[in-house]
Amino acid sequence: MRTADGRHSHDSGHGAEPHWTIVVPVKTLIAAKTRLAAHAGPHRAALAVAIACDTVSAALACPDVARVIVVTGDPVPAEALAAIGAHVVADPEAGLNAALRAGGAEAVRLAPGGPVGALQADLPALRPAELSVALACAADFDQAFVPDAAEIGTTFYGVRPGVPFRPRFGGESRARHLGGGAKELTPGGIPSVRRDVDTPSDLEDALALGVGRYTAEVVTTMRGSSGWRTPS
Ligand SMILES: Nc1nc2c(ncn2[C@@H]2O[C@H](COP(=O)(O)OP(=O)(O)OP(=O)(O)O)[C@@H](O)[C@H]2O)c(=O)[nH]1
Ligand SMILES: C=C(OP(=O)(O)O)C(=O)O
After folding, report:
1. Domains: count for the chain
2. Which of 50, 101, 110, 142 could crosslink 218 through cysteines, CB 3.0-4.6 Å?
3. Residue span of the signal peptide, if any (predicted)?
């Protein structure tokens, strides 16, 4: 059970209170998921919101997560994500890492003694149990990250309580997180944590893993529209 601000109101079932605060950045829809524009056509914005909803919903269902803070400057995803239990804060509109740092500052205000993680909003196949595995691994290091499926970017970056939160997302962020001293986490069995969706072929891979209900619904609508193409 959760309280109105998205916190668990009882123990996680693992014998301890859930303790991670997860920060999820969500871009303004007009600029979101541009690499899916030709594929999604008029459904691009709905798809971006749906993918973020599945990501946040799975993170909130993870027993190790106490709360999810969404950072966005767009009222549409803000409303949809607040409705499923996220705590939404305003985007300072100074880029992705500035947005994440704003969320990280809110996390420290809400839970000063807890670990903080940044999770990309484009993980529609995310499984709560797989996120648990990544969080358990991350807890062993001051700073840690999970590379994306392509091993170029990053899907998760997290810090232990008291360690400065220094996300270095954007483009080839795997190398930047390594350069910043974060431990790379690649345990087996977490494909859903690594499966970010940027391109039509990423979306097919996520569908093969099994996406959440929000993305599934939009994809069904897309497939019913003319113009749907399965990527080669
Ligand atoms: N709040 C916030 N989130 C951002 C910003 N830039 C990127 N993001 C988020 O960061 C993640 C990675 O973003 P990108 O890959 O740059 O953008 P995208 O919308 O997923 O895809 P493309 O438009 O195809 O690049 C997604 O979760 C975005 O919503 C920003 O300036 N503010
Ligand atoms: C922002 C990133 O990735 P992408 O643009 O692939 O979503 C990243 O991996 O840091």
Report:
1. 1
2. 50
3. none
